[in-house]
Each structure stands twice: as structure tokens, then as C-alpha cells.
């Protein structure tokens, strides 16, 4: 029942947001200042979705092709030529901080309105905003949660201080002079997992405590208390690419640990109310909304017909873009079938697209007209991050695919469909990707 409530909430918010996007062209927003108002010449209009780690940067080091790429994407006045959104599974900072960081690295102005972090869609999950939520991750997690709309936030550090005998794996953090008193907190109603923490053992221990005590970690574990309180998780990346030669553990690896610990202790599967971030459909639906708003600010009167998602991770970027393309095709078919019945339901999208509620993630957006729907979302795989040139050689053999030599790195609750890991295009780097898109769309690229 709770899942159906949040599906409906996301649905209505996306509807109202899409309707409100039409007014953005008349506002003096940071988007409109950042774009040159040149409507597309002819019928072609598109938007670009950029992953960050492994596509534009490696850790804190910009990939050389990225700077040149963005010089081509802006005019002489530094105004963007087409709508651009940066879609990352990172979530340990605020949007304006990530925008400033990208502006510095790419040497072009990046607005916070162009940045979408893994947790950004949580703004739509309003039914949780008044609950007392425990947040896990690193960086300014309390500030991030409050900025998203959560009103009553408890951090892992606050929980440690309130219950000082819970965190004892590190002997140096154990109480030395007797057992300090418990301060106590109000019961926790839900858990929000933003990203991988610094001290995994602390977060894993305290999260299990909260889940097995129905949000009252000072009480005795009770594995019969099932299902547990709601858990919302952002960023399912098992691996990500920094400066090291090999990928690093991501938040998806932390989720694997938490899921297995919970099942080992209770015998039950950990359940999620929502899994957001790439490759979930709700993430791409939200990113498309931002693209549509920017197109309005550009003065475009033609709807955006195609999205191009550029990424380096077949199991996140490519899988997600292809899953969203499948959703778009199913949405167009479903809408045509349901117009006579007065609307489109989330369940119709799931049946038509053959998706689970987890994969759909509450992304049953309602569009003003059938023509508003993009024709599709193309996935572009670059070879500068998680996906390597060595793997690209597999493509030369028609009997092999990118994924036949790999196990599934996606989340437990996503069904593995090898066809969704196959990119629409494979290029060397992001500069080549943008040049290919402009050529594909018949746009001049200076």
C-alpha cells in the first residue's frame, strides 16, 4: 500500500512539474541566462545527459577530451547550444557544490539546475518528508536531506551519541569509564541511504539495529518484526572509476553488505520502498523533466524528440538509458491504448514495459500530449572509465557481446537483461560522443 502511495505521489508531482515547465521561458532563471535562445533549425531537437565520473573526470582530474567537448557545446558568449543535464550517481554533496566543481573543471558555467545527483528524485517522495528519517552516507547528509524536503533528520553520528554502547567494532571508540547513559531519540520511521559511508562497520551495525528494533535501537532485536520500517536507497553503483587503474567500490557494494547481513541475521530479504539513481527509470524521467524545462528556456517550441545518455558503465549508464528507452516506447503504446479510458496508470506502464515496480521506481509520468513524449533515449558508451578498450575488442566478434564475459553488477532487485547493456553507440571519449550526436541530428558543430 505504501508503495502505491509513493507511486501516485511521484506521478502527480511529475505531472505538475511538467505543466509548470511551460512557464520557465518567461522567468529569469539561471538556466535561461546560461543558454543562447536559438530554437532548433528544422524538426530535430534533442537533449544530452552526461554521466560525470569516468566520462568527464577521473576522481578530481578532468578527462582532456571533456574540456574540448564543452567548448564545442557553448557559443562565443558561453551560452549552451542544446539542453544539457549532468546525471550522476554521486550524492555526497549539494547540487550547487557539484555545479561549482564542474564549472571549474570544464571551464564553462554549469548551473545547479543542470545537475542531477542520485538523491534528487527524493524531492518527489513527499509522503516521507514529515517522518523521522535516519540518513546514512558521507558529506553534509543532514543538510542534503533537509534541502530535499525531509523535516526531521537523524544522522548516524547523532545515533552513536544517543546510544554510545552500539558502536564497538573499533576498540578505540568503546566507552572506557563505565557505561555512559543513553540519551534516547524519538523512534525512527524510515531509513534513507544516500551513499557509501566512511566507516562501513559503524553504519552497517547501527542500520541493522534500527531495522531489527522497528526504529528503536535501544530495544532488543526482534527478527519477527517484518517487514521492517521503510528503506529508500540512492546510487546502486557496485563500482565506479577514480584515478586508480581499476574500479573502486561504490554504494552498491555497501548495499550488498547490508542486504546479506540482514538476511544472515533474520532469514528474510531486506526490502526497499524505493531504489533511485541510475539505472532506475524514475531517475531518467526526472532528468528528462529538467531537459524539457531547459528546452523551454531556450525558446524551443518543438518538443525534445530524443535524449542521448553518455556514460562509461554498461551496468548503470547504458542499462538505465536503455531501460528508459523501453519505458518511453511502452508509454507511447500505453497512452494510445488508455486515452479513451481517461488516463494512464502506473500498472499499465509496468505491464506494457514488462518492468517490476522497483525498476519503474514511481516514474509513471503523465505528459500533456502524446507529442510531448520523446521518441526515445539512445545510450552512448565511452571507453574512458569503467568500460575499457580491452572490453571494446569483444564487439569485433559477432558471437560475443559486451556482457557475456561478465557477471551481473546490477542491483539484486533488477532483473538482468543482457540486451539492455548493449549501447546504441560505442565511442572513444565524450568529445567523440558529442560530435557523433550532432552529426546524427544534422546540427553544425563548430
TrEMBL record:
The keyword Signal appears for this protein: yes
Official protein name in the record: Haloacid dehalogenase-like hydrolase domain-containing 5
Family according to the record: Belongs to the HAD-like hydrolase superfamily.
Record flagged with keyword Signal: yes
Origin superkingdom: Eukaryota
Gene Ontology biological-process entries: glycerophospholipid biosynthetic process
InterPro entries from the UniProt entry: CDP-alcohol_PTase-I, HAD-like_sf, HAD-SF_hydro_IIA, HAD-SF_hydro_IIA_CECR5, HAD_sf
UniProt keywords, alphabetically: Signal
GO terms for cellular component: mitochondrion
Amino acid at each position: 500500500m505504501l508503495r502505491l502511495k509513493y507511486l501516485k505521489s511521484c506521478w502527480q508531482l511529475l505531472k505538475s512539474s511538467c505543466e509548470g515547465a511551460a512557464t520557465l521561458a518567461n522567468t529569469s532563471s539561471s538556466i535561461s541566462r546560461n543558454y543562447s535562445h536559438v530554437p532548433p533549425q528544422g524538426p530535430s531537437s534533442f537533449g544530452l545527459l552526461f554521466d560525470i565520473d569516468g566520462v568527464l573526470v577521473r576522481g578530481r582530474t578532468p578527462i582532456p577530451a571533456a574540456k574540448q567537448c564543452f567548448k564545442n557545446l557553448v557559443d562565443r558568449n558561453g551560452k549552451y547550444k542544446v539542453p544539457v543535464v549532468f546525471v550522476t550517481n554521486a550524492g555526497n554533496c549539494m547540487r550547487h557544490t557539484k555545479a561549482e566543481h564542474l564549472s571549474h573543471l570544464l571551464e564553462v558555467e554549469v548551473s545547479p539546475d543542470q545537475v542531477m545527483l542520485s538523491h534528487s528524485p527524493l524531492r518527489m517522495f513527499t509522503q516521507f518528508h514529515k517522518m523521522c528519517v535516519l540518513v546514512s552516507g558521507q558529506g553534509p547528509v543532514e543538510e542534503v536531506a533537509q534541502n530535499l524536503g525531509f523535516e526531521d533528520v537523524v544522522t548516524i553520528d547523532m545515533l552513536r551519541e544517543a546510544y554510545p554502547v552500539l558502536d564497538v567494532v573499533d576498540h578505540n571508540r568503546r566507552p572506557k569509564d563505565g557505561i555512559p547513559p543513553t540519551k534516547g531519540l524519538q523512534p525512527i520511521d524510515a531509513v534513507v541511504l544516500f551513499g557509501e559511508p566512511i566507516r562501513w562497520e559503524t553504519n552497517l551495525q547501527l542500520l541493522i539495529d534500527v531495522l531489527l528494533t522497528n526504529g528503536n535501537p535501544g530495544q532488543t532485536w526482534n527478527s519477527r518484526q517484518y517487514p521492517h520500517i521503510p528503506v529508500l536507497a540512492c546510487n546502486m553503483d557496485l563500482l565506479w572509476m577514480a584515478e586508480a587503474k581499476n574500479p573502486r567500490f561504490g554504494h552498491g557494494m555497501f548495499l550488498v553488505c547490508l542486504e546479506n547481513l540482514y538476511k544472515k541475521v533474520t532469514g528474510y530479504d531486506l526490502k526497499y520502498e524505493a531504489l533511485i539513481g541510475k539505472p532506475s527509470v524514475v531517475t531518467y524521467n526526472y532528468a528528462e523533466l529538467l531537459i524539457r524545462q531547459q528546452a523551454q528556456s531556450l525558446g524551443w517550441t518543438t518538443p525534445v524528440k530524443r535524449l542521448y545518455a553518455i556514460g562509461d558503465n554498461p551496468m548503470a549508464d547504458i542499462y538505465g538509458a536503455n531501460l528508459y528507452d523501453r519505458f518511453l516506447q511502452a508509454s507511447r503504446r500505453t497512452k494510445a491504448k488508455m486515452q479513451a479510458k481517461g488516463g494512464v496508470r502506473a500498472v499499465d506502464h509496468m505491464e506494457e514495459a514488462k518492468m517490476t515496480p522497483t525498476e519503474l521506481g514511481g516514474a509513471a509520468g503523465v505528459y500533456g500530449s502524446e507529442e510531448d513524449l520523446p521518441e526515445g533515449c539512445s545510450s552512448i558508451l565511452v571507453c574512458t572509465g569503467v568500460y575499457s578498450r580491452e572490453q571494446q575488442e569483444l564487439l569485433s566478434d559477432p558471437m560475443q557481446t559486451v556482457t557475456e564475459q561478465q557477471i551481473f553488477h546490477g542491483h539484486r532487485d533488477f532483473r538482468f537483461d543482457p540486451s539492455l547493456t548493449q549501447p546504441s553507440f560505442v565511442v572513444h571519449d565524450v568529445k567523440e560522443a558529442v560530435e557523433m550526436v550532432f552529426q546524427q541530428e544534422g546540427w553544425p558543430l563548430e
